[in-house]
């Protein structure tokens, strides 16, 4: 079973960016996250949503 939530470090690996970049995306609201028991967690669905938003943005820029 795939993880339902990722820690920022793991989300950064999945997205191919730095942990700092992931925290910037969270702070800007571009990437959803939750805080649970002192841990920052990013839902797997939020990673997919972010990737889709990037694709849509790239499509608009090409057109």
Which percent range fits the helix content? 55-70%
Q: Strand portion, in percent?
A: 15-25%
Structural class: alpha+beta
Radius of gyration from the alpha-carbon trace, in angstroms: 12 Å
In N-to-C order, the SSE pattern is: EHHEEH
Number of strands: 3
Instruction: Give a short account of the largest sheet.
Output: 3 strands, antiparallel
Mean pLDDT: 96
Number of helices in the DSSP assignment: 3
Instruction: Tell me the quaternary state.
Output: single chain
Report the end-to-end length measured between terminal Cα atoms: 38 Å
Low-confidence segments, ≥5 residues, pLDDT <50? none
Strand order of the largest sheet: 1-3-2
Globular, elongated, flat, extended or rod-shaped: what is the shape? globular
What is this structure's SSE topology?
Blueprint: E1 5-6, H1 8-15, H2 19-28, E2 34-36, E3 39-43, H3 44-62
Antiparallel strand pairs: 1-3, 2-3
Structural features, described:
With 63 residues, the protein is α+β, with helices and mostly antiparallel strands. Helices cover 59% and strands 16% of the residues.
Which features does this protein show?
63 residues, 3-stranded antiparallel β-sheet, alpha+beta, 59% helix
